[in-house]
Amino acid sequence: MANNIYHFVAKAELTAKENLMRFIEVSRAKLSAFGKNCWEENKWTTHKGTKKVTARFATNTKPYDSYNFYPMATPFIDFAKAYIRYIFSYNPVTNLQRQFEALRILEEALIIAKGSADVLLLDGLVLEQVNILFPKRIPNKAGRNKAGYQMELLLDFCRDNQITPSLPQWKNNYTRDKDLTISLDEKGIEHRNDQLPSNEEMMLVADMFSQAPTYGVEAEYYTSAMAILMTAPSRFSELTLPIDCFVKEEDRAGIERLGIRWNPSKKGKKGIKWVPTEMKEVVIEAHRRLIRIGESARLAAKFAENNPGIFYRHSGCVTPPDYPEDKILTPKQLGAALGLVIKNESSLQHGTKWLKNLYEQNNGKISYRALGQYEWTFYTSKFPNWPFIDNERKVKVSEALMLYRENEFNPRARAAKPFSFLFPTCNQVNDRFIQKDSRSAASLWVKHGFKKADGTYLRVDTHGARHWLSTMAERGGMDAITLANWAGRALIRDNASYDHRTEQEKADELGALMIPEEASSLDKINLNIPVSYEDIGSDLPGCAITTELGVCIHDYAMLPCQRNGDCETCKELVCIKGFSKSLELLKQREKAVASHLAKAQKDHELGAFGADRWVDNHMWRLAHIRTKIRLLEDESIPDGTALFIPEQYDPSPSKEVLRGKGLTAEIPSPDELEMHNEIFGLLRGDYA
Q: Is residue 121 predicted with pLDDT exceeding 70?
């Protein structure tokens, strides 16, 4: 259910205490984040998408962990609850760690400085204690920076909302750590090595995938998940794929390409992630294995979707088909339904915690109806958007590729639970590929004897595969936009966080982009490098100005351009053969000028005063444009050639006057020119 939103506005005529009480009451009565009946509890839970969000109102003044803690002192805890509920309603996040660090430090500072956890007592002495407590409670520099930002927001909220109106300004002075992704020192190198799996490790993952059928269903399932993640730089949370996630299309060469419909997280661009040709058969095989392994789980999920609260009577049940829903099950019948061995009633009373609870909740009388309600509630509660698995509510749980049954991979279990359907967590996948000291034989590496050449076990998490694949793409020369889209990133600059190439590699790449001495003007235009006058056949010093139609040889030392950007008929414009952008623009302008010319001609024929001058002007302009187009389309002229209309074919009006009076011999008359193509006709006005 969506959170209610209520904008709290303090009233200047009220006291600080009255504004505080109003704020607490607003949050308690008008907001619904974390549930309407959560206020008296000291541990709140909700979901942001598929992520579970926990709000634990534990105090720093006594030891605490995830399961055992002492609540914050009164009256501060009511303010803390109101604040968390209020900010979460406006901005739901998946983790409230930093917000709670700020609240706990503030509560502790109040107790030390004032002897009471009352937010109304906030003053400069309390802020001094805040500064003392920060490095003690948060030793990590990056953590202090993030918690400090939340503390600044918290204190500003108290001041701005008249709860502590005279509170001094407090600024977050805890700076962020430098970005080790691009750092050149030893720490930066070490960080990149830790983030990036080695090629040896990634090849061993591939080897494990190829041999997985001989190792069993657990190896098949988890190596298939990793194989799909290695297809394109992906996050584990993006594996909410449907079973029909494949797309097949032919490319320009007629070769069939395979793609995966992907819904990227973190606001990435939706679309298709195309599978590299070398990975095509691997992905198809991984998909086939996951379809087979999850088939029973999807059938159970489909039944639960269509039959809420009804038990899924599977092939392992030993009761007759017409066995009544409310008839009590014997221990043997119940065990068969659950895929367990239950010898007698005592096994239920002293069994596992969940089985004992089921027995007690039903007073020892468990029917298919009671069992169905329990099982349905238990498994559907694992999916916050039931019956959908994704936040966008497009993929149903019963269609999810990665679904599996409980105990599917547990070698100690008699069998997987028939009426069960689960989706793996990121930690479950990572536990199979990272060997931890705390779990001696949990990883696939230990179970099946895989080690690196130096004798150590592998540590490859799901995000490591993303880093590795992104870096390989960078090394292969993939452009930034394609890589960002392929990886499902919202911003191109995010590529840098996954680029673990050495500085030498990056320098070599830049060196390869340096333009050779024989590069043409077209090469320089395409790479946004200055084009010299020499490149276009002029002996002037300096560089030309690149425009949308070509390059301009008008030097800054001259008077400013007198044409105000009218480049189409300017003799100082040099078109570059092969510069497709200029050709496209000239063709667009050709259509426009031809249309204007046709109208001017029609008006001239009708006797409109002055239309003849517009006809001449449009003919003159159209001749220049078509001449340039003809030259740019001439296949006999090589790309990169500088093209312009020589002045003898289009002299200035002043030189024409001088030539007519016989005062200059630089410009030949039209009769003296020998033209063997259509250019002269265009210049003459043969526009048709």
A: yes
pLDDT mean over 354-368: 76
Sign for the CA dihedral angle at 177, 181, 185, 191 comes to positive
Which residues on neighbouring strands pair with residue 256, listed in sequence order? 250
pLDDT at 655: 66
457-464 average pLDDT score: 70
The more confidently predicted of residues 311 and 652 is 311
140's CB contacts (< 8 A; 6+ apart) are none
Find out whether 115 and 74 touch, Cβ atoms under 8 Å.
no
Q: What is the dihedral of CA 348, 329, 383, 273, to 10 degrees?
A: 110
Give 236: exposed, middle or buried? Use CB within 10 Å, 0-12, 13-18, 19+: buried
**Of 352 and 153, which is predicted with more confidence?**
153
Of 114-128, 284-298, 313-327, the least confident: 313-327
The 3-state DSSP class for residue 573 equals strand
Radius of gyration, alpha carbons of the chain:
37
Tokens for 460, please give them: 């490859």
How many residues belong to the chain?
688
Q: For residue 2, is pLDDT > 60? A: no
Write out the DSSP string of 66-123.
SS---BPPTTHHHHHHHHHHHHHHHS--S--HHHHHHHHHHHHHHHHHHSS--GGG-S
Structure tokens at 285: 């095989």
The crossing angle, in degrees rounded to 10, of helices 124-137 and 141-160 is 160
Calpha distance 632→579 (Å, rounded): 8
- Cβ neighbours for 76, distance < 8 A, ≥ 6 positions apart: 106, 107, 110, 117, 118, 119
Could you tell me the two tokens for 632?
A: 């740019």
Please tell me which residue, 421 or 536, carries the higher pLDDT value: 421
112: pLDDT strictly greater than 50: yes
For the cut 80, the answer to whether the pLDDT of residue 341 exceeds it is no
CA distances from 47 to 34, 89, 289 (A): 8, 12, 31
Alpha-carbon distance of 554 to 360, in angstroms, equals 93
| pLDDT reported for residue 85 | 93
Which residues fall within 8 angstroms of residue 170, CB to CB, at 6 or more apart?
A: 127, 130, 151, 152, 155
CB 258 within 8 A of CB 283: yes
Q: Which two tokens stand for residue 515?
A: 């333009």
pLDDT averaged over every residue in the chain = 77
Residue 253 vs residues 247, 256, 257, 476, 642: alpha-carbon distances, Å: 17, 9, 10, 22, 34
For residue 35, give both structure tokens.
């549930």
Q: How far apart are CA 311 and CA 413, in angstroms?
A: 21
